[in-house]
Amino acid sequence: MVVIDIGLAKTEKYASRESGDTVELVERPGGGFSLVMLDGQGSGKAAKTLSLLLSSKAVGLIKEGVRDGVVARATHDHLFAFRHGQVSATLDVLSVDLKTRTIVVTRNADAPMLLVDGDEVRVVPVDSGPIGRYQWTRPAVMQFPLRAGLLVVLFTDGIPASGRRAALPPLDFHELARSVSSVGMTAQAVAEAVLQVAIGRDQGRPGDDMAVVALAIREGEATTPIRRLHAQIPVM
């Protein structure tokens, strides 16, 4: 059997009370689950309200059995229709479909994706922009077989933007992917490692909201199939 390992780490912009990044985990009616990650334009309360509104739309469609590509288009259409191209957001849907035994990644994003498949380490560039700006925006969809040794890491634009305030060179995503692909690292450890790199580049004061989602597939022992979910949320 294989074990699906999920990790999430996020923080808000320095001195901001609200994060415009929203991440939700939802079970799929046909089997499996989806992680929905949204980054509303800007930061603070307005960005959070936007990302919550859009995540609610996307999650509702997924629960109704709508395919991920259609979910992304419908969420875009909803934003474009009511904000007339004046407001944008990024959307990532990372799904594990147990019926087809595949991982589906659907993206309208600004940041690249890190992909580790066994010994192969790749940085997958973005070929679709945010939702909400242009009427005919389409998502990019990728599909991978569900097999041990696969690691997918997605993040919002606060990660690649880190270090700009200090005039640091752009983040080396290939080196970052290699460093987090260490054998034995859990998905949660990977997500936290990526987040800490970005926070460090911003000298401990994040210049933007940041969210990291990691999905790892690894070999597991044939034991009682217990699903576990852990969350840790600091409150200031």
What is the percent of helical residues? 10-25%
Radius of gyration: 17 Å
Spatial arrangement of strands, main beta sheet:
1-10-9-6-7
Low-pLDDT windows of residues: none
Total helices: the number is 4
Counted beta strands: 10
Q: List the secondary-structure elements in sequence, H or E.
A: EEEHHEEEEEEHHE
Largest sheet: 5 strands, antiparallel
Strand content: 25-35%
Shape: globular
Question: Structural class, from secondary structure content?
Answer: alpha+beta
- The overall pLDDT, averaged over residues, is 93
Alpha carbon gap, first and last residue:
41 Å
Sequence-ordered SSE layout with sheet pairings:
Layout: E1 2-11, E2 21-27, E3 32-40, H1 45-63, H2 68-83, E4 89-97, E5 102-108, E6 113-117, E7 120-124, E8 140-145, E9 150-155, H3 173-180, H4 187-201, E10 210-219
Antiparallel strand pairs: 1-10, 2-3, 3-4, 4-5, 5-8, 6-7, 6-9, 9-10
Helix pairs in contact: 1-2
Supply the key terms.
single chain; alpha+beta; five-stranded antiparallel beta sheet; 4 helices; 10 strands; globular
Fold and architecture overview:
There is one protein chain. With 236 residues, the chain is an alpha+beta fold. The protein has 4 helices and 10 strands, in the order βββααββββββααβ. It has helices at 45-63, 68-83, 173-180, 187-201, and strands spanning 2-11, 21-27, 32-40, 89-97, 102-108, 113-117, 120-124, 140-145, 150-155, 210-219. The protein has a 5-stranded antiparallel beta sheet. α1 packs across α2 (68-83).
Task: Write a short abstract of this structure.
25% of the residues lie in helices and 31% in strands.
